Amino acid sequence: MKLSQLFRNKKQVLSFEIFPPKPEVPLENLFDSIPGFKALSPDYISVTYGAGGSSRGRTVEIASRLKNTYGIEAMAHLTCVGHSVEQIDQVLESLKHENIENILALRGDPPIDQPDFDFSKGAFRYANELIAHIRKAKEGDFCIAAAAYLEGHVDSKRLDEDRRRLKDKVDAGVDFLVTQLFFDNRLYFDFLDRAAQIGIDCPIVPGVMPIFNARIKTMTARSGCSIPAKLVLMIDKYQDNPEDLRKAGIEYAGKQIRELLDGGAPGVHLYTMNRLKSTTEILEVAGLR
Ligand SMILES: Cc1cc2nc3c(=O)[nH]c(=O)nc-3n(C[C@H](O)[C@H](O)[C@H](O)COP(=O)(O)OP(=O)(O)OC[C@H]3O[C@@H](n4cnc5c(N)ncnc54)[C@H](O)[C@@H]3O)c2cc1C
Q1: Is the pTM of this model over 0.85?
Q2: Is 147 in the pocket of ligand 1 (CB under 6 A)?
Q3: Rounded to whole angstroms, how far apart are CA atoms 60 and 56?
């Protein structure tokens, strides 16, 4: 099913994000947890695409098994950085062959060892070009989602320009948006107003990242997201007690989700980090179990 249809028919859509394990780790380790994730009744599960396409085969395989073996609707992430048009078309063909109808279309990050990476040398420079290509090459085959950044993308020098670029992306053929992680729900609700002002009228689904450990500080610093002072204090308080930090992170994420849904968000996309137990606990706090 195309997720655009789901967003039309369902008031609030619950989705999980999982990532392919490293190549040396068997996929079965992940699949062992899939029945447990399924029992939590997500409307769909999305599967990330390794930086620079490193896990491209695994992304398609996992999405396919979610859909065709486990009967869970799936969305495959797809980044265009470093890919030729032919490579992108091959992935699109594989997805179509596996009956995957939903793509989160992204530019992707530069390779970690190439901070001065030149995006202009690739076939697609920005996500809007990839989206336009999918729409043109595979008309009607896919529902397309894209990423939105409440605090602006880390490369962007101006927030208003980042939002204009987002509008370009939506105009290229996006059905719904999923946001980057954030910890203050006011950022999300403010963003909805600003997006509406510039004519973005597709669903904007908040992406919620639970705090599992103190590494969140590095992750947010890298992606340009802020952490509210009360959360910094929480992380510092439990820095010598990982289990208490995990529990506090679960409590925070569960309450964040509840507030987003009560405030009218069209759903929630939970970055599960492949952690079934914590995901279950978060949904309990959010009143979704
Ligand atoms: C929900 C979500 C899921 C993600 N999943 C993955 C994943 O699976 N794999 C992965 O590798 N990464 C993933 N990412 C990270 C993402 O690839 C990076 O954030 C990447 O740097 C930007 O991708 P984008 O599609 O948002 O880029 P774009 O929308 O292309 O934007 C990138 C930057 O370019 C600017 N820009 C856009 N268009 C133009 C233009 N025409 N002219 C000038 N500037 C422009 C934007 O303002 C922004 O600063 C995900 C991010 C999110 C939020």
Answers
A1: yes
A2: yes
A3: 7
Instruction: Give the residue ranges of the chain where pLDDT is below 50.
Output: none
Over residues 264-273, the pLDDT tens digits come to 999 999 999 9
Strand partners, 45: 16, 74
Crossing angle of helices 159-171 and 185-197, rounded to 10°? 60
* 13-55 pLDDT, tens digit each: 999 999 999 989 999 999 999 999 999 999 999 999 987 666 7
Ligand 1, atom 8, lies closest to the CA of 48
Pairing of strands 13-18, 143-148: unpaired
The whole domain housing 220 covers: 3-285
Q: Distance (Å, rounded) from C-alpha 40 to C-alpha 254? A: 14
Told to judge if 28 belongs to the known catalytic residues of this protein, a careful annotator would answer no
The total domain count for the chain is 1
| Residue 79 belongs to domain with CATH number | 3.20.20.220
**Of 153, 160, 198, 223, best ligand 1 pocket probe by most atoms within 8 Å of the beta carbon:** 153
Q: What's the DSSP call for residue 141?
A: T
